Amino acid sequence: MQTSKESDVSGIFKEYEDKKSGEKVFLVRDFIEVRIPLSHYRKLEKRYPKEYIVSIAEPRKVISHVTKRELVVVTRESGIPLLGHAAFGLIDRGTNLIQVRCVTGCNLNCIFCSVDEGRRSRTRAADYLVEPEYLAEKLKEIAEFKGKGVEAHIDGQGEPLLYPYMEELLERISRIKEVEVISMQTNGTLLNDDRIDMLEKYVTRINLSISALDQKKASRLAGIKYPLSRVLENAKMIAESKMDLLIAPVWVPGYNDDEIEKIIRFALEIGAGKRYPPLGIQKYIPYRYGRKLKNVMSFREFYDRLVEWEKEYGVKLILRPEDFGMEKRPRIPQPIRKGERFRARLIAEGRMFGEKLAVVRDRVVTVRTDRKVGDFATFEIVRTHDGIFLAEEV
Ligand code: SF4
C-alpha cells in the first residue's frame, strides 16, 4: 500500500514510503519493488546516494510489483544458470525453436491458466526476472550450436511484456545471426501504439491470446475486468504492421463455446496470418499445477469441431510444427541423469511453495525441500524431461 506521495527520482525508479509495512519502497521500471525497512533507510540516506541504496543496501526485500511475490533477479553474478528450469531462462526441446523466458508473473488471473498465474495464484511462491545481456549471451551460445534458421520464441509462465528490458533483449537477440525469427506470446493487454512500433523493429510474429469477444465473458475468463476493446484495437494494429499475427483463444467449455467462431471471423476480417496460420485454437486442459475447471472437452470433440470450421471458413485450424517452420535439431547435451544424487547449497527460492533452486553441472535444478535458502541439501534427480531438472531431497 502506497502511503506517501510518490516521486520519480531519475525516470528509472520511483520512490515512496509504505507506512503500513514500515518500509521505504523504490519501484524500478514500474516492475521491481525494492523494499528497505524505514528505520534502516533513514540511516542510509544520510550517507549514500539513492542509486547506491537501490542497488546495494541490505537488508532488503525484492518483490514483483505485479504479483507481490518475491522476485529472484537472475544475473550472471547470481550464479543461477539459464538452462534447467521451466519458468525462466532457455528451453531446448530438440528443435530449431528455443523458448526464451525472461520474466514470470501475470497481470491477468485467467480461470483456466495452466500455470496458475496472476496475483491470485495459490501455488506460485516466487517470480524471476533475467538480466537481458545474460539471457541473450546464453541464447547466442545455443543458437550457434543449433545452426541456421533458429526461432527465438519469447513466452513464459506469465506475460512476457511485463519484462522491463524488452527492447534491450530484442535488440540483442536480433544481433544473433542464427536467429532468423523472433516470435512472442502475449495477452495483448499491455500493448499500445508505441510498444507495437518498438516490437515491429524486431519481431516476426505475435501470438495473441483472445478467448472471447463478449466483454462479460472475457472478464470472467481473465479473472479481472478485461480491457477488451484495447486488446482488439491492438490486434488490428499488429495485423496492419509488418508483423504476423496469430490469434490464440483457449476454448473453455461452458464459458466461451459461442465465442470461438466469432474469434475465427474476427481474425480473418482483420487480416491475421500472413506467412503463418491466423489462428491457433487451444483446448482447455487441466494441468496438475494449473487452475482446474469442471468441464473438460474430449480431444475427439475438439478436433471434430476444428475440422468443421476449417471447411466452413477455408482456414487451417489444425496446426503442425511444420506450419511454423519447426524442425528437429540435436539437443544441447544433458549433463545430468535421472537417479543421480548430489549435495549442493540451495541458492534461491523455488517457483512453487516447497521448492528451492540448486546448481549442478551448470544447470539449475528445482529441489523439493523444506530447507531454507543457504542450507545444503542432498537430493536425487527424479525428472530430466526436455532438460528441465526436478529433484527430491533424500
Ligand atoms: S494471460 Fe496467460 S499466463 Fe496470464 S493468467 Fe492468463 S493464461 Fe495465465
Automatic annotation (TrEMBL):
Keywords, alphabetical: Iron, Iron-sulfur, Metal-binding, S-adenosyl-L-methionine
Pfam families: Radical_SAM (PF04055)
InterPro entries: Aldolase_TIM, Elp3/MiaA/NifB-like_rSAM, MJ0103-like, Radical_SAM_PqqE_MftC-like, rSAM, rSAM_sf
PROSITE patterns: RADICAL_SAM (PS51918)
SMART domains named among the record's database cross-references: Elp3 (SM00729)
Keyword presence, Translocase: no
Sequence ranges assigned to domain Radical SAM core in this UniProt record: 90-316
Cited Gene3D superfamilies: Aldolase class I
A GO MF term: metal ion binding
Keyword Metal-binding: yes
PANTHER family in the record: MOLYBDENUM COFACTOR BIOSYNTHESIS PROTEIN A-RELATED, RADICAL SAM DOMAIN PROTEIN
The protein's name in its UniProt record: Radical SAM domain protein
Organism of provenance: Archaeoglobus veneficus (strain DSM 11195 / SNP6)
